[in-house]
Write the structure tokens for this entry.
Amino acid sequence: VRRLTGLAEQVWFLTGTPMENTVDEFTQLIRYLQSDLVPPDGLPAGSVAFRRRVSPVYLRRNAEDVLVELPPRQEIAEWVYLTELDQARYAAAVRTGNLMEIRRAGFGSPSCAKLDRLGELLVEAAANGLKVVVYSFFLDVLGWARTVAPGAVFGPLTGAVPPVERQAVVDAFTAHPGPAVLFAQIQAGGVGLNLQAASVVVLCEPQLTPTSEEQAIARAHRMGQVRP
């Protein structure tokens, strides 16, 4: 990228996520665009000084600024009371200190409170004729989630599915008449796909970075979406 920007007379970078984890990611992009904006010790700390420094090359547009016809987005946190078995599984995961086991403990078996609640949400969406996208970081969680989905089921979209095949699955999901559920690993289905056919998005567990959740939701809440 640095070599290409050095050869070009004009350069545009277009991204929905210029900074996902650290300021260093953003700093590197600015260096490629206009290196003299970045001092040797990096960009300044503090939001005001930071914005002032990058303003010559940074144009930000939020979806609500440019997509005024986009329907409102409703966010609902579903609180689920764990069963005794769920609680025991979570406690065991905490004792191991394994972050991934702790994250997936709420979906630790084919029979658990979170799975029951997910099933209720999917049945409710189907009764209203809506399409749903269900995201999880974990493959086994998606496998268990499929067992509580009513009607037409598509996926799962995973990192092992080539991009062309992913698009074929999305096209079939979009073309299906009536309610349907698409299952996807958030790192595979959460970027680069258009899922406006769905108006309900379920995140099975919180992700490690808020931007990955935002990107996943934005696959459905984007230009062409007509439902809240």
In short: The mean pLDDT is 88. The two ends are 39 Å apart (CA to CA).
